[in-house]
Amino acid sequence: MRHLSALLLLFLAGATAAFASRAQPVIGLSLDTLKEERWQRDRDTFIAEAKKLGASVIVQSANSDDTRQIRDVESLISRQVDVLVIVPHNGEAMTRAVKSANEAKIPVIAYDRLILNSAIDYYLTFDNVKVGEAQARYAADRLPQDRPARIVRIYGAPTDNNAKLFKQGQDNILRPLIQAGRVQVVHEDWALDWKPENAKKIMNAAVTKAGRAIDAVVVSNDGTAGGAIQALQEDGLAGKVLVTGQDADLAACHRILRGTQAMTVYKPLKNLASLAARVAVEVAKGGRPAATSTLHNGLKDVPSIFEAIVTVDRSNLEATVVADGFHRAADLK
Ligand code: BGC
221 CB under 6 A from ligand 1? Predict the structure, then answer.
């Protein structure tokens, strides 16, 4: 009898906890990394918006380590969060942790990067194919027309599904030009873990292999653009070769103003992070917020929302990044 009432008590305590947690949901946010500037903003905006909505957030960051990130997610599951929001380091490796979340009946939202072959509930991101198209179009529009242009391509982390989508977008623009003989890819490679030092090595290898006659380097984000530009600087080529990027990192905006980087892609992170917080809170409360699209992740059509992106160069830096409050004009001096 005593045993039974103890069980009953436990059950009631559990029920109260569940009820309380739904009124004030607890969100588990698992990040791949906080190294790049953007992810710190994503985190801060997400937490602020969640707080406004009465939710609290437990944040974990895995420092680009799959084993660690899977452990992070397992620990959030054992802490019985009401919903998981995950930026996977590796879109395939994370499938295992999503299975555990499914078993624990905790909904999962993939944030910015897709989780493959898994029963996730939402995918909230920017239009990543459009990011790649914007980068390649910017470069293509400025390449020499009187001879075949020589370009280097530096892709992102091969473990990040987004890196493939950026490449896909770039391919959409570059492939016809390559086929027509107007563009020649003199070197290409993937920058492991999106590390600037890996991009620098790729750029060094490109110059060693193809020489200094390079017109453009289509780089997939600002961090790796920074690495590539360092390599160009060593060869006295910075500012002479068009370099693309993405994220509107402060350092990249400075480079754009100095002329060593031509463009970046601004992704209004506050839109994505606050959308994600709203969706997470609604899902935690048992709702099914409307998506605007779907994307197949190898297992299912995932309800998805794609936020818009903006091409930025020196001519519109003020009117976009500054006007939107992403960077203060004073910080760009
Ligand atoms: C994001 C980019 C970011 C990159 C490296 C990608 O998945 O979409 O914004 O620069 O990861 O962190």
Answer: yes
CB of residue 130 inside a 6 A radius of ligand 1? no
Q: Is 194 in the pocket of ligand 1 (CB under 6 A)?
A: yes
pTM for this entry: 0.93
Q: Among 41, 61, 160, 266, which residue has the most ligand 1 atoms within 8 Å of its CB, making it the best to mutate?
A: 160
Query: pLDDT digits over 141-195, tens only?
Result: 999 999 999 999 999 999 999 999 999 999 999 999 999 999 999 999 999 999 9
Task: Identify the CA nearest to 160 among candidates 263, 312, 33.
Answer: 33
Only one residue has tokens 């790729």, namely 202
User: DSSP label at 319?
Assistant: I
For 92-123, give one letter per residue: b (16+ CB within 10 A) or e. ebbbebbebbeeeebbbbbbbbbbbebbbbbb
**Cβ of 121 less than 6 Å from ligand 1:** no
Q: Which residue's CA lies nearest to atom 5 of ligand 1?
A: 194
- Give the model's pLDDT for residue 19: 44
For ligand 1, say whether the CB of 66 is within 6 Å of any of its atoms: no
Distance from C-alpha of 278 to C-alpha of 283, rounded to nearest angstrom: 9
Q: What tens digit of pLDDT does each residue of 75-125 get? A: 999 999 999 999 999 999 999 999 999 999 999 999 999 999 999 999 999
**Domains of the chain: which residue ranges?**
2-126+269-307, 128-267
Report how far ligand 1's centroid is from the alpha carbon of 246 (Å): 8
- Domain 2-126+269-307 and domain 128-267, same fold? Reply is yes
Tell how far the Cα of 221 is from the centroid of ligand 1, in angstroms. Answer: 7
Task: Provide the 8-state DSSP code for 73.
Answer: H
Token representation of residue 155:
């892709």
- Looking at residue 113, its amino acid is R
**Ligand 1: centre distance to CA 75 (Å):** 25
Instruction: Assign 192 to helix, strand or coil.
Output: helix
Q: Which fold has domain 2-126+269-307?
A: Rossmann fold (3.40.50)
CATH tag for 128-267 (out of 3.20.20.70, 3.40.50.2300, 3.40.720.10, 2.40.50.140): 3.40.50.2300
Is the minimum distance from the CB of 74 to ligand 1 under 6 angstroms? no
